[in-house]
Amino acid sequence: MLLLAACSPHYNWREIRSDGAPYIIALPARPASFSRNIDLNGTRVNMTMTAAEVDSNTFAVGTAELPSAPQAQAALEAMKQALVRNIGGTVREQKTLTIAQSSHAEDGHLAVIEITASGPGDAATGGRPRVLFARFLAKGQRVFQLVATGPQQALRRDLADTFFSSFQLD
Fold it and tell me: Which CATH architecture has domain 2-169?
């Protein structure tokens, strides 16, 4: 079933390699990128977001570089709180996972915070309740935020899993 969802003609998954950060990810449509200054735990940083939308579902990866590795780790909680606040939502589930540091197995693993949140409907969801799946991680001074969000009835977990599992640090 997961393979059928991943091959859906609506979801034309394509591998994207970031120009400014060391990652590769699959997005379900042609992405757009933008940058803006944000406050992460008291530190102003420039965050770059690359996102694609299909059927009111948005898939995005954001990244920023902080002055130090400890600041990057501390910023993960601020990123999580800001994202949930942006949808007026509530965290329904949170867990810690591990992923390979890079495509080279000898590099070890990194901790990843994963959340599932829900929020009220808005114009972007056609008034339908929103679901949000997100992962947050830091490697060195760089933070990463992976987000899949959309109407609760339209964004299935298997689509978020396809997106998340494609993420690789380069």
Answer: 3-Layer(aba) Sandwich (3.40)
39 strand-pairing partners: 44
Would you say 31 and 52 are in contact if contact means Cβ atoms under 8 Å apart? Answer: yes
pTM, full prediction = 0.89
Whole-angstrom distance, CA of residue 108 vs CA of residue 104: 9
Residue 124, SS3 per DSSP: helix
d(CA 149, CA 23): 21
Give domain limits for the chain.
2-169
Share of the chain above pLDDT 70, in %: 91
Strand pairing report for 32-40 and 43-54: antiparallel
Buried b (16+ CB within 10 A) or exposed e, 38-61: bebbebebebbbbbbbbebbbbbb
User: In the predicted model, what is the mean pLDDT of residues 104-123?
Assistant: 84
- Start-to-end C-alpha separation, the chain: 29
44 forms beta bridges with 39
Phi-psi region of 50 (alpha: psi -120 to 50; beta: other; left: phi over 0): beta
Tell me which amino acid residue 115 is: I
